[in-house]
């Protein structure tokens, strides 16, 4: 399966060959991480501007997390999680 430069969750979902369990799990994990990041940001009362500065990402990258159609890169997700002092466990 070839995944082109798709930027939206819906585009990836439509093009996804669900025979690829790895890709399916990667998308599910990214979605869970987005939710955890947004929850932690809200709980801590951190503004998008402050989080963007701390994570060294654009403020738009943070706004994009709240839109169902945008798929953030794993690099952005990790930067945001680390900026929020979140612990990522691989089990």
From TrEMBL:
The species this protein was found in: Paenibacillus barcinonensis
Domain of life: Bacteria
Recorded coiled-coil stretches: none
Domain HTH cro/C1-type: from-to ranges: 35-91
Pfam families named among the record's database cross-references: HTH_3 (PF01381)
Transmembrane segments: none
Protein name per Swiss-Prot or TrEMBL: Helix-turn-helix protein
Database matches in InterPro entries: Cro/C1-type_HTH, Lambda_DNA-bd_dom_sf
Entry's Gene Ontology molecular function annotations: DNA binding
């Amino acid at each position: 399966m070839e995944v082109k430069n798709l930027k939206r969750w819906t585009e990836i979902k439509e093009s996804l060959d669900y025979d690829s369990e790895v890709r399916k799990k990667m998308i599910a994990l990214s979605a869970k991480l987005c939710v955890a990041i947004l929850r932690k940001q809200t709980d801590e009362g951190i503004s998008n501007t402050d989080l963007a500065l701390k994570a060294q990402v654009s403020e738009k990258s943070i706004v994009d997390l709240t839109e169902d159609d945008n798929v953030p890169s794993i690099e952005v997700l990790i930067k945001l999680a680390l900026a929020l002092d979140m612990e990522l466990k691989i089990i």
